Task: inverse folding
């Protein structure tokens, strides 16, 4: 090493590190799905599988070249269901804590993290994928919250 | 009596921070849940902190379905931007839940050495003495080729600062992938221990629990962190 590191130099290194590490496009959404006719556990599983695969394929069609992690957590009054996808060849891994009972509504949190496209494209592809699957399953959808600002996580290092 | 006693350090109680790092989809959350349950069975009081740079967190809610104590910290990286929130969370956990081990799943952008520093900030907020378990980084053997081609630099960063690198999903990987993973790790970090694991078969689970339970990693050292940053990202004197 050649002498002490200055504060500015340290900040530059830190920012460079974050940018190098944070090279993945991200989007997250919290949604409520509803079907007054009832959602059986099996239908919920098919929905989660289809949601992850469809959203991922939309991202690849938009230029993504690698899945970081695409995952979703469903929570209903009758339990929860976790779905995870890291490789389309392997498919969606489901971990179910649902009971046998059908339910009318559930909250779903979806995380989409892929490589090769930036946040705005991930957002658009994910929203397109959500719409397709919601239409296919004929659920009512309410988006409670969404998020896609990757740079926000490192803005404290940016010089104004 | 477990090894992890309440440390007496000027009267402060000891609490161990265990980091489980790794690229997205490498099996961190699954390992974290399984190891936590194993440590609970051994008589430990475990808390879990998960961090995501986004504002909507999935993992904490999933972890809690297993009856484990989980806290989420969102909206930034715990090694720097929200280090204060992280330190405060540790202090509050210490004052209320009194875990003897806190397992941390950092986001993909956290630096292990920075996270150590952030954890030690909690000593100013609570009567606690922080010690660290060896930093464990997971590598997904089944995706090693994809990861090297697409996110080599990120994978290198996570391996470089690890004390132990866990080649995960070995039940689904072939010998070539495991060997390639091993060579990659050794080329980046010649000092790291390499272990094999599988969430599906439970391989490596008890060994990881043993590591967290019985071993320690050095406390934060500013000079070490700067040297690691220089080696990875250049700069004067690199």
Result:
């Amino acid at each position: 090493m050649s002498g002490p590191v200055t504060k500015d130099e340290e900040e530059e290194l830190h920012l460079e590190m974050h940018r190098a590490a944070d090279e993945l496009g991200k989007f997250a959404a919290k949604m409520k799905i509803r079907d007054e006719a009832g959602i059986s556990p099996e239908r919920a599983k098919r929905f989660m599988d289809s949601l992850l695969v469809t959203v991922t394929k939309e991202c690849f069609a938009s230029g993504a070249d690698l899945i970081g992690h695409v995952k979703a957590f469903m929570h209903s009054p009758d339990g929860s269901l976790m779905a995870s996808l890291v490789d389309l060849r392997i498919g969606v891994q489901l971990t179910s804590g649902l009971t046998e009972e059908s339910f009318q509504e559930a909250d779903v949190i979806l995380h989409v993290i892929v490589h090769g496209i930036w946040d705005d494209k991930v957002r658009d592809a994910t929203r397109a994928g959500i719409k397709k699957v919601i239409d296919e399953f004929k659920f009512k959808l309410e988006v409670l919250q969404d998020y896609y600002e990757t740079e926000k996580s490192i803005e404290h290092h940016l010089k104004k | 009596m477990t090894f992890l006693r309440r440390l007496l350090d000027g009267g402060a109680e000891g609490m161990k921070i265990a980091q489980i790092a790794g690229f997205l989809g490498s099996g961190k959350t699954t390992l974290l849940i399984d190891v936590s349950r194993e440590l609970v069975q051994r008589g430990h009081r475990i808390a879990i902190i998960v961090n995501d740079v986004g504002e909507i967190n999935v993992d904490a809610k999933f972890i809690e379905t297993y009856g484990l104590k989980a806290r989420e910290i969102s909206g930034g990286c715990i090694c720097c931007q929200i280090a204060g929130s992280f330190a405060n969370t540790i202090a509050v956990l210490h004052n209320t839940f009194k875990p003897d081990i806190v397992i941390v799943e950092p986001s993909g952008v956290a630096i292990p050495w920075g996270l150590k520093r952030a954890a030690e900030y909690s000593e100013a907020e609570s009567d606690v003495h922080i010690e660290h378990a060896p930093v464990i980084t997971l590598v997904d053997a089944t995706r090693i080729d994809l990861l090297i081609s697409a996110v080599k630099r990120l994978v290198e960063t996570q391996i470089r600062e690890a004390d132990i690198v866990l080649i995960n999903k070995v039940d689904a990987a072939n010998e070539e992938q495991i060997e390639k993973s091993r060579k990659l790790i050794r080329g980046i970090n010649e000092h790291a221990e390499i272990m094999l694991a599988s969430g599906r078969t439970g391989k490596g689970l008890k060994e990881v629990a043993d590591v967290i339970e019985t071993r320690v990693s050095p406390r934060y050292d500013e000079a070490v962190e700067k040297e690691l940053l220089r080696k990875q990202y250049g700069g004067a004197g690199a």
User: Anything to note?
Assistant: The domain at 13-201+216-230 of chain B is CATH 3.40.50.300 (Rossmann fold).
